[in-house]
């Protein structure tokens, strides 16, 4: 099955207001910027986003965030995104912060059909006990707090129950992909991208290099095409447009 869609705009044309999205990337690495920009240009809003972070340097999800298109974020890192922090503290944005490894496993579990799992991460903290601010009231108070989660003991150790994550759509970026949706990720871009792709009911991948079926060795495939419904081939200019978050030089 040829899953290639001519343009990013066509690939995201059926993403409705209020949809949930799993979005790959970590910082500026492996972020599906072209698909995110297409969503922005389409005017889609009220989105619930699941991603490690919410963009940086006015790129990635920061484009949608700054435009007020994101209603809820499930993630593990705010970092230096001042607009993310401002919206959260002002009560404009609902945020569920969870441990980074837990986020990764919740996405993987959802994609693997596992409804929930136990982990020791967060036991003895508000992650398990509840009370983490999901939404502030804009005056320093908490309007909505996280509920307590089930904690169970196995072999003398306590574990907290975490739910797998499934989203309406997933947006990912790969270094290489074929027309069947088989994907290869480059270096640190192989971070949350495969997991986000697994979690989406409809997964859309932008690929820097599009090849024909059979050109990717089976053992080289990082994510099989069964998890991918649409593929968008980037132009050489789009593929080469990679920002550097913190440039360092040495004498």
UniProtKB/TrEMBL annotation:
User: Which top-rank group of organisms is this from?
Assistant: Bacteria
Q: Which InterPro entries would you find in this protein's record?
A: 3-oxoacid_CoA-transf_A, CoA_trans_fam_I, CoA_transf_BS, NagB/RpiA_transferase-like
One Pfam family cited in the UniProt record for this chain:
CoA_trans
Could you confirm whether the keyword Transferase appears in this record? yes
Question: Does the keyword section mention DNA damage?
Answer: no
The alphabetized UniProt keywords are: Transferase
GO: which molecular function terms?
A: CoA-transferase activity
Annotated family: Belongs to the 3-oxoacid CoA-transferase subunit A family.
UniProt-recorded name of the protein: Succinyl-CoA--3-ketoacid-CoA transferase
Native organism:
Streptomyces poonensis
């Amino acid at each position: 099955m040829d899953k290639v869609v001519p343009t990013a705009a066509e690939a995201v044309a059926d993403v409705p207001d209020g949809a949930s999205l799993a979005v790959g990337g970590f910082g500026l690495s492996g972020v599906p910027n072209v698909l995110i920009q297409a969503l922005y240009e389409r005017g889609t809003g009220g989105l619930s986003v699941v991603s490690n972070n919410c963009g940086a340097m006015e790129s990635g999800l920061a484009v949608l965030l700054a435009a007020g298109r994101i209603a809820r974020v499930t993630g593990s890192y705010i970092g230096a995104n001042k607009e993310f922090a401002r919206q959260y503290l002002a009560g404009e944005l609902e945020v569920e912060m969870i441990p980074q490894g837990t986020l990764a496993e919740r996405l993987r579990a959802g994609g693997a059909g596992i409804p929930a799992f136990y982990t020791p991460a967060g036991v003895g903290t508000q992650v398990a006990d509840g009370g983490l601010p999901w939404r502030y009231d804009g005056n320093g108070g908490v309007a909505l707090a996280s509920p307590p989660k089930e904690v169970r003991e196995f072999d003398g150790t306590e574990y907290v129950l975490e739910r797998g994550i499934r989203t309406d759509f997933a947006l990912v970026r790969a270094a290489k992909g074929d027309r069947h949706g088989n994907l290869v990720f480059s270096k640190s871009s192989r971070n949350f991208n495969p997991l986000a792709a697994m979690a989406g009911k409809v997964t859309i991948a932008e690929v820097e290099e599009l090849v024909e079926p059979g050109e990717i060795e089976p053992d080289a495939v990082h994510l099989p095409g069964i998890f991918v419904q649409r593929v968008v081939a980037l132009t050489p200019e789009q593929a080469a447009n990679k920002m550097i978050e913190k440039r360092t030089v040495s004498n």
